[in-house]
Amino acid sequence: MRNELIDAIGREYRWPRSQNIPTAVPMTTGIAYAGLYRSDDGATVPVTQETERLLIHYGQQKPLPVFQTVGEEFFAIAINLRVRFGGPAPARPASLTIVHGGKTISFNRVES
Questions:
Q1: DSSP secondary structure code for residue 6 in this structure
Q2: Residue 89 burial (CB count, 10 A)
Q3: Strand, helix or coil at 3?
Q4: Domains defined for the chain, CATH in brackets
Q5: Residue 74: CB partners within 8 Å, gap ≥ 6?
Q6: CA 63 to CA 49: how far, in whole Å?
Q7: pLDDT of 59-83, one tens digit each?
Q8: Minimal CA–CA distance to 5: which of 101, 13, 65?
Q9: Could you give the C-alpha distances from 79 to 21, 27, 88, 94, in angstroms and in order?
Q10: Which segments in the chain show pLDDT lower than 50?
């Protein structure tokens, strides 16, 4: 419904159609995304995993839900943010990359 409202407003104000709206797909099972990730400058991002989404926790902000799209990429609906996971063991990603606007921040999993 959200996209339908945005499309209706866009038609009314003659906005150009967005070509970069991802589509959520069911989350890949058997992958342990949840964990604590740390950047080179010491910032930490805890990630919790739910059935249909991940929650990105950053500082004192409310957890941000992100949804899976193609591959190991996730996107937020509330803001223009992309999250990618990587590493040599597909079942337990070793790294997390957050892309927000023109800024990219890389994090590595902190072993417990």
A1: H
A2: 9
A3: helix
A4: 23-109 (2.40.128.50)
A5: 54, 66, 67, 68, 82, 83, 84, 85
A6: 12
A7: 888 999 999 998 779 999 888 889 9
A8: 13
A9: 12, 20, 29, 25
A10: none
